[in-house]
Amino acid sequence: MSKLGVETTHGVAVLRFDNPPVNSFGLDMRGLLWSALSGAEADPAVGAVILIGSGKGFSGGADIREFGTPKSYAEPNLRTLLRAIEECGKPVIAAIEGICMGGGLEMALACHYRVAATSARVALPEVKLGLLPGAGGTQRLPRVIGIEAALNMIVSGTQVDAEQLRGTALFDVLSEGDLLASARDFAQGLIAERRGPRRVRDLSLTMPNAEAYLQFARNTVKAVAGPYPAPGACVEAIAAAVQGPFDAGMKRERELFSQLMATPESAALRHIFQAERAASHIGDVPESTLTRPINHVGVIGAGTMGGGITMTFINAGVPVVLLESTQDALDRGLAGIRRNYQGALRKGTLDEASLERRLALITPTLQYAPLRDVDLVVEAVFENMEVKQQVFEKLDDVVKQGALLASNTSALNLDLIAKFTRRPQDVIGLHFFSPANLMRLLEVVRGARTSKDVLATAMQLAKRLGKIAVVSGVCDGFIGNRMVGRYAQAAHELLMAGALPQQIDAALQNFGMAMGPFRMNDLAGLDIGWALRKRRAAERPNMDSSHVADVLCEAGRFGQKTGAGWYRYEAGSRNAIPDPEVTAIIDSYRARKGFASRALSDAEIVERCIYALVNEGARIIEDGIAQRSSDVDIVYLNGYGFPAYRGGPMFYADQTGLLEVERALRRIASLPGADVAFWTPAPLLARLAQHGETFSAFKGSAS
Q1: Is the pLDDT of residue 473 over 90?
Q2: How large a percentage of the chain has pLDDT more than 70?
Q3: CA dist 354 → 315, 423, 433, 504 (Å)
Q4: For labelling alongside 275, which of 47, 369, 414, 637 has CA 20 to 30 A away?
């Protein structure tokens, strides 16, 4: 099937994009459009041309898969194509419906006229990829909606409803009815009135005190852009539109675009964009796999996690049966859910009527019987295998056949949980991250006997809930918590070597982590790790699982919830205050274990903690727990605060160079007292390093 449909009726040529999912302009599509446009311009029977999309809308823009490849520069490239549209001797009308983003909006701006559905949405989101619009968007958009509005759209990258831009020169007609019919009528009018092309580039661009406004914009953007260069470059490109002729502005836009393409920040953001899309593809599960309907769910446990999971479902309009063991626990859980919505009420993003409609979707219960007809149950009870066994055995007896039985466990063996039922093929892990109603990440844990349709259903559900899902195999901690265990171990070794929590946290936060490991531990609660170490000590009695945090827990220091952990906290405050008592505990523990203290640099702290993540990530990939390295990145970016501008731990390692990472790991392993097995480079990392390859190029279990 052709990616471009061509039809001529009553002197109007209609060129319809048909390149799912978003009608992107890859090289093939550009070539087809170039030929069709040339043919229409040469055809004496054609008086006007309409460009229109299909499916989800007009166009999502350039094909990001071609960025930085020869295809993106091959003729006709997007700039050449848009120039041809702009210079066409016959009126070219963009008929805009659905999404019109990036290069799609730049194409519409190159057209001579624009007819849009009132429901259309437009955006120039390139800044979210660390770029700026590179095909005239920074030069044309200010000419049709004004400098300030254009700058806000381009710097933020947010979508804007067409209705909000009514009355600007962006749209000649806003249509309530059949878009193509409206565009045909408009085209016929142009032909009848002999109105020729009208180019956006010829529109004047004026603003009182423009220079003062641009300087204000520079200062404002610089204050909020952080490590990202793209927002500031967007301002400079728009300044070029104000300060000089159109062609000079186009040249400056192109220079800035090329500079941004070469930045590590843009490379990281483009990697993330691709990685999020790759995560939904499961190597051995066909896209055509039939999924099970999920219209009614059950949640077991109304605590912090169960409440957040319940909110996630009711926010998506899915009714929930919420089960607790006691009336008191159920009442506390329901009160907590209502309390969690208060912020949205205060901000005006939710009104009382909408809140009551959501809460009405919850059916609270103390009995399992109301769960019998749900399509999915998510267990969110205490992280104890005996408790899980009781729950799943009961679910197996009560819940209808064909329903998904999911555990929110963050570390326990899902295959063992599945054995508590007579239907292991229906058991899956849905590891939500706290707070579940806010965090985007969902680890979908695939058991040894989880069926493909159950897995496909879980991935489809995640999308419906607004989550980004990553498939994990079964191991202790899955992807995220298995890695964070190694990260925490590296941080603990640094404590034993002479660093203090505040130095380690500061070094990693300066690297870009949202929170250092000790502040994160205080937020999550030290008692969680304490319980895990106790479990592991019982399972592996010959292994030393002790940790200085055990001493803190024995003293009742569980983190923020008790006012003291690695730091101390004033009542009602989350500010972490270094505590001399913790320093004394660390010094005493270090001496008891026979560790000598030395000075450590921030660079060494970052190297050891981040490379510990990378090394464990390599093992996870080689073990087949993660399908691909980018899945590991997605988990750490969305669940553990890794800085987006570094692209995730595996991408960061690729950018650093795997040979450099391997050498550093071997050096750390050779230090006195080092855990050699822990620091020895993972076999996959060592192989890739020796062959000059990257994690990104390694296909792993996704191939």
Answers
A1: yes
A2: 99
A3: 10, 38, 25, 44
A4: 414
For residue 649, cis peptide bond before it (omega within 30 degrees of 0): no
Look at residue 701 in the predicted model and tell me its pLDDT: 53
Cis previous bond, 208, omega within 30: no
Question: For residue 105, is pLDDT > 80?
Answer: yes
The reported pLDDT for the residue numbered 700 is: 65
Q: Name the percent of the chain lying above pLDDT 90.
A: 89
Long-range contacts (CB closer than 8 Å, 24 or more residues apart) made by 181-184: 182/95, 182/115, 183/50, 183/52, 183/93, 183/95, 183/115, 184/9, 184/10, 184/12, 184/14, 184/50
C-alpha span between 257 and 262 (Å, rounded): 9
Residue given tokens 């993540």 in the structure block: 613
**What does the radius of gyration of the chain's CA atoms come to, in whole angstroms?**
29
φ and ψ of 122, to 5 deg = -120, 150
pLDDT band at 1 (very low <50, low <70, confident <90, very high): low
Section 99-112 average pLDDT: 97
Neighbours of 307 (CB within 10 A): 26
Beta bridge partners of 4: 17
Q: Convert the pLDDT of each residue in 509-548 to its tens digit.
A: 999 999 999 999 999 889 888 887 887 777 788 777 788 9
In one-letter notation, the amino acid at residue 202 is: D
**Of 106, 253, 324, 443, which residue is the catalytic one?**
106
Q: Is 193 a catalytic residue?
A: no
- Encode pLDDT of 246-301 as tens digits: 999 999 999 999 999 999 999 999 999 999 999 999 999 999 999 999 999 999 99
Strand segments, DSSP code E, in 418-488 are 427-432, 441-445, 468-472
The Cα-based distances of 672 to 499, 600, 682 in angstroms read: 16, 15, 20
Phi and psi at 14, nearest 5°, equal: -110, 120
Full DSSP string of 8-37: EETTEEEEEE--TTTT-B-HHHHHHHHHHH
Distances (CA, A) of 87 to 92, 201, 309: 10, 11, 55
Structure tokens at 582: 């913790």
CA atoms within 13 A on the CB side of 313: 26
Residue 616 CB neighbours (<10 A): 24
d(CA 222, CA 87): 37
Mean pLDDT of the chain, nearest integer: 95
Sign of CA dihedral 215, 219, 222, 225: negative
Exactly one of 126, 265, 379, 443 is catalytic; name it: 126
Q: Is 106 a catalytic residue?
A: yes
CA distance between the termini of the chain: 27
- CB under 8 Å to 35, separation ≥6 — which residues? none
Q: Average pLDDT in the 353-375 region?
A: 97
Strands (E), 140-183: 160-161, 173-175
Q: Which residues contact 590 (CB under 8 A, 6 or more apart)?
A: 495, 496, 498, 548, 597
Tell me how far the alpha carbon of residue 4 is from its chain's centroid: 31
The answer, as to whether pTM is greater than 0.85, is: yes
Structure tokens at 681: 């480079």
The position carrying tokens 């004033």 is 570
| Ramachandran class of 594: left when φ > 0, alpha when ψ lies in -120 to 50, beta otherwise | left
Residue 529: its pLDDT value, please? Answer: 83
Q: For position 528, what pLDDT does the model report?
A: 81
Rounded Cα distance, 698 and 383, in Å: 35
Is residue 703 very low, low, confident or very high in pLDDT (cuts 50, 70, 90)? Answer: very low
Query: Which amino acid is it at 301?
Result: G
Give SS3 for 174: strand
Q: How many residues does the chain have?
A: 703
